[in-house]
Amino acid sequence: MHDCIIIGSGPAGLTAAIYLARYHLDIALIDNGSSRAALIPCTHNHAGYPGGINGRDLLERMYTQAKSFGVSRQTATVTAIEPVGDTFIVRMGDAVAEARTVLLATGVVNHRPKMDDALHDRALEQGALRYCPVCDGYEVTDKRVGVIGTGDHGMREAMFLRGFTQDVTLIAPDAEHMLDESCAKALDDAGVERVDGPCGGYAIEDGGLAFDTAHGRMVFDSVYPALGSTIRSELALAAGARGTDEGCLVTDEHQRTTLPGLFAAGDVVKGLDQISHAMGQAGVAATTIRNELNTRHPLRR
Ligand SMILES: Cc1cc2nc3c(=O)[nH]c(=O)nc-3n(C[C@H](O)[C@H](O)[C@H](O)COP(=O)(O)OP(=O)(O)OC[C@H]3O[C@@H](n4cnc5c(N)ncnc54)[C@H](O)[C@@H]3O)c2cc1C
């Protein structure tokens, strides 16, 4: 019986692992190797790294730190969380683990434009494809930027990027734009171009990402997909925790979900979807877990 099972070994899960191990708790850290942070070519907004740091390097440093306090990571996909009294059974296919508390730090997965994986990864590495204007809008200052998206979400992404450059084009992914009057007006007032789709025939050309649209072939220094994401909250929702309409987990200010003993941190919770936020939530969750377990039995045995 572990004190806590942490599901997910991204910035949130690893931060929680460091805290909980340093509180002398017995933890299991389970991960299936698909952290969004591993996709970051070089983050420049994460404090403490002048010159930036690659996402995989940051994760490796965090895991090395966790290991120094005795944490070891298990590679597996968690398939179910089952509350049993005031404990939990965590299933990984046929394998089972038990814990007094569970921390879900499973993140989200961005929906990608329709292109093959090799091109996707190359474009990402070169900064021709980007997913996070909060993270790297600074890097596209005064560049040619395309946003693939439409509706309210597409409009908001384009308007956010308009704060970094005057040259922003919003391209509908599949066919014609679906923009209500207020979205269209906001874009017009800000001078954001609108182009209909469908988008296809992606290639790296002229140092940027080129693709076909209803208005012919276009090329941008950087393209941001605004196609939504899948929130990996299904394990918690199936166990009975409450989610928002979008599927993010609802937590209180101590990162408790609505299911007692089940905590959540990072992108899977509604928030800024940033490393700093994931780390902050994980520190809060870990300390609450420690304090709650401390009321059940003395921690140092
Ligand atoms: C291209 C790109 C650039 C970015 N740049 C920046 C940046 O510069 N600065 C910044 O602050 N943020 C940046 N971000 C955002 C940042 O990556 C996320 O906010 C951060 O990774 C969230 O951490 P997390 O721990 O919540 O989730 P994740 O890092 O996504 O980790 C979740 C973990 O859960 C595991 N998992 C999921 N489901 C299961 C399961 N069922 N069983 C077992 N394991 C599971 C996954 O394997 C994964 O390791 C960027 C994101 C992208 C995509």
In the CATH hierarchy, the third-tier topology of the largest domain is known as FAD/NAD(P)-binding domain
The name of the CATH superfamily of the largest domain reads FAD/NAD(P)-binding domain
Q: Which structural class best describes the helix and strand composition?
A: alpha/beta
Through-space gap between termini: 15 Å
Helix share, percent: 25-40%
Largest sheet: 7 strands, mixed
CATH class designation of the largest domain: Alpha Beta
Return the domain count.
2
Q: SSE order, as H and E?
A: EHEHEEEEEHHEHEHEEEEEEHEH
Counted beta strands: 16
What fraction of the residues are assigned to beta strands by DSSP? Answer: 25-35%
Shape: elongated
Number of helices: 8
Q: What integer value in Å does the Rg equal? A: 21 Å
Mean pLDDT: 97
Q: Assign the CATH architecture of the largest domain.
A: 3-Layer(bba) Sandwich
Which cofactors or ions or other ligands sit in this model? flavin-adenine dinucleotide
- Uncertain segments are none
